[in-house]
# Entry
Amino acid sequence: MRLTKTALWKLPHLWALAAIVAAAQSTLALSVRLRSLLAARGFQVITTRESDSAVDSDRRAEIANRVNAQACLSLHGSETGSGVHLFASSLAPANPSRIPAWKTAQSAWVTRSLALAGVLNAALLHAGISVTLGRTALPAIDSMTCPAIAIEISPDQPANINAKTDLDDPGYQARVAEALAAALLEWKTEAHQP
Amino acid sequence: MIARHQAILFIVLLAASIAMGVGLWRQLDRAHQRLLNGVDSAPTQAPQVAPAERATLVVASDADNSLLAQVQTLPLPQDPGARARLILGKLLDLYAAPDAAHPVPGGAKSIAQVFLLPAPNLASSPTEPESGAPKPAEPKSEGPELAVVNLTGSFVASHPSGLETESLTVLSICGTLHANLPRVTQVRFLVDGQPRATLAGHADLTRTYLAADTVPSEGLHP
# Structure
């Protein structure tokens, strides 16, 4: 069973939504850990799910859009690849419209999403975690009207080491959560600047 | 005692039967003579072997989330649809190999069909994904084309779930099609002939992909 989580943040609040991902327990555990770290930094965190129950992509985007978040993180887990994969929507940037189309609502936010990806990338690299950046067509992200990034956590495999660190490894999860929390704190600071 | 008209009918039918029997006997005799004379009138022809050509495969790698062009020499048919199916089959054969950089089970049989249609004009709404069937466009003999890739249900069912792996599969298929058939500018996906929401829970299969956006910049066209 795969398990995912999505997190949303509106200054000075942060919400975390749940979705569908790989290792259910590991992603859920990461979400709980991240939520705690963010709460300690003054963010308000909301999750779309706290247990292994399905929430469809439209519902996740609906919750995100309703709270008018300034940052939305969709957390996923996968056994393929290594390190952390950051994905922004592959939609082309477009001017915001008063009533955006549901399937392409993210197009008005893609530029901000890419900026958020840059902040997350820098923080993860600083924490010594390998990162790959990409664009993807993910229905939940494409419908969000906020800076939105899908974060896929895979087993960590540092350079020159053959063994992979498992997704469930508490130390690995702590490093990822700390890096994400630090990135969001920086993002929040940047958002406050004129 | 039978009626007169019945007797006439019987005689006519008997005469016709005898005539047909004689005709068949003579045809059989002629066929036998042709066989004895060694005349070969069989309509079968030896199958033509497709010439080997260079094809560019846009191969994905999970290790660094990359797409790299790889040139291979393959016997390719002239029909564009069959050609596209064969090339994509080769790409999926690479992914099904034990030491694949982007492991996906299934192989060549995972591509049921590839249909090539005139591409609908997306210029009026460049970012809007299509939902449902593609809109018909004005037929243009040399214009851009939409490729509809029909995947098998077994391929989709066995595809690993994950953002990176699903995105790479979709993008490598789009890139490979555009690299070998440059007129293919848009790609859509079906699974067992039906629209499907995602590949394995993540990558959107309801939208139209712009093939030119998915290919690496160098070494593409064979």
The first strand of chain B starts at residue 52 and ends at 61. Residues 124-140, 218-222 of chain B have pLDDT under 50 and may be disordered.
